[in-house]
Amino acid sequence: MKKYIIYIAILAIGLILGYVFFGTSNKGNSNTTEVSESTETKPQMWTCSMHPQIMQPEPGDCPICGMDLIPAETGGEGLALNEIKMSTNAMALANIQTTIVGNASESDDNTMSLSGKILPNEEANAVQASYFEGRIEKLNVNFTGEEVRKGQLLATIYAPTLVAAQQELITASNMKDTQPGLYKAVRNKLKLWKLSESQIDQIESTGKVRENFPIYATVSGTVSQKMAEEGDFVKQGQPIVKVSDLSTVWAMFDAYEGQISQLKEGQKITVTTNAYPNKEFEASVSFIDPSLNTQSRTVSVRATLNNKENLLKPGMFVTGKVVMSKSTNLEAPITVPATAVLWTGNRSLVYVKTNPDEPVFEMREVILGTKNGDFYAIADGLFNGEEIVTNGTFTVDAAAQLQGKKSMMNAEDQSEMYSKNHLAKVKRFEVSSEFQEQLKVVFDNYMVIELALINDNSELPQKGASDILKSIEIVDMKLLKEEDAHTHWMRLEKELKESATEISNTSDIQKQREYFVSLSGHFINALKTFGINQKIYVAYCPMANNDVGAYWLSQNKKIQNPYFGASMLNCGEISDLIE
């Protein structure tokens, strides 16, 4: 009986163990199958081992280097060229914060920072000159910075001409009854040399000629410059000392070109200096230089400061914060915190959160405007409502670099050129048909260059480029109603002119084709932004521009490659259509 009980117990234990191992395993296999099926439903992306920014849904050749594409790593989740995904834990550890950008908000301190220094108030400067020729026998001003008061004796001068004039006065005084005109003329001559009535009367009454004459200060202030020394022979009108009244001083600031439009006389300005870090000096902008310094590309902005306590010394470096007037313009420029911008010297970058529900970020190049306090105005590259990284930007960039994505550190010239000419998302502006017609003239001249390059002609591109420069000048920016459109066209106009100028200055067709890459990239941007009331095709050749790839514009679907001409006339494909 015990024997059967043992067998039954062993069988029961076996059944339990079998259920545990095989039942769980089967369930695991079921889950694995589900995961595999789930994984299989995701589209497989293909990339290039040398150019990880290339992502295609099908295998094939890399459009840049021609190498076979390889399967992209699982988990790429269909991220775009410049996108990076971070984990929630990494976001928290790095304290990465994002902000939705829009028109200038109350978070902006509404000030503009300027740097400058203290200068003497030139309106309160005085030059003490000698009113007659002579030799300085005694100079009572010993050093620069010495305080002088009005009426104080500054110098004693031996004046030979005054000696002769005194003798004339003594002689004329004896004949004043018979020749009053002569007597009056002699006295007036001495008055012109700044001799007082009492001095003239003393010479006349004593009948003695004085050899040395005093010069008295006509103003009070601080000696800012000694312009003569004892023993010097000075001419009539020659300066002896320069006196500055430092009860008021000038704060002279330098404003860059991009800041000029936001400045006007009468604006409040708060001045601070390192000498008195806890003290602020209030003033107003009193003068804006009408001319631009062509070397520093700055304009001088001046404020007059009260300096009764003599705290501000000429030469001190100061910082001024100009209070900006609150703008009522609904199209005010987008502003972002300075912490959001990565600056590489040639480019300014931000990271935009492209998915509101997931930590997915895209590197975006932006054009910076003026800096107001700790905020930058964005001239181009961002739109209202976009969410950007405002804290931890360097951490996001470092993560992008580790994942092999484009970042601030690894965006070399070749990648930069590829990105610059890659079709970007641009905002389309509603513009008048008159503006489009003017832009169409520029496009027609662009096509002259393109057709010449297709036919391997190096003469016509120079003329076409010159015509582009002339037609750009005719484009009337006043026809653009939106402020953003104004800013965008100004930047495009500058870039188009630069590219066209380079083409017009060379007869080397290879050089012309190199500059045509840039010209085409900027013109595609212009047509996508403003349009010319005509359908235009955008063509792409992966082998152009030293295998980096390049675009051009075409009026029909037929491929005619301007970068290779007859040697590879049909190389390329239509990649986009501009309505």
> How many helices?
13
* Global morphology: elongated
Radius of gyration: 40 Å
Low-confidence stretches: 24-41, 104-108, 327-331, 412-422
> How widely separated are the two ends?
94 Å
In percent, how helical is the residue content?
25-40%
Q: Which range does the strand content fall in?
A: 25-35%
Average pLDDT, to the nearest integer?
A: 78
Q: Specify the structural class.
A: alpha+beta
Report the sheet with the most strands, covering strand number, pairing sense and barrel closure: 8 strands, antiparallel
Say how many strands there are.
Answer: 28
Descriptive report:
The protein is of the alpha+beta class and 579 residues long. Among the domains are: 88-108 and 330-411, conserved putative lor/sdh protein from methanococcus maripaludis s2 fold (Beta Barrel), CATH 2.40.420; 123-244, Beta Barrel (OB fold (Dihydrolipoamide Acetyltransferase, E2P)); 433-578, no CATH class. Helices cover 33% and strands 28% of the residues. The strands form 6 sheets. Strands 4, 5, 20, 21, 22, 23, 24 and 25 form an 8-stranded antiparallel sheet that branches. A 6-stranded antiparallel beta barrel has the order 6-15-18-17-16-19. The longest helix is centred in the N-terminal third of the chain and has 40 residues, at 2-41. The radius of gyration is 40 Å and the shape is elongated. The termini are far apart. The relative contact order is 0.10.
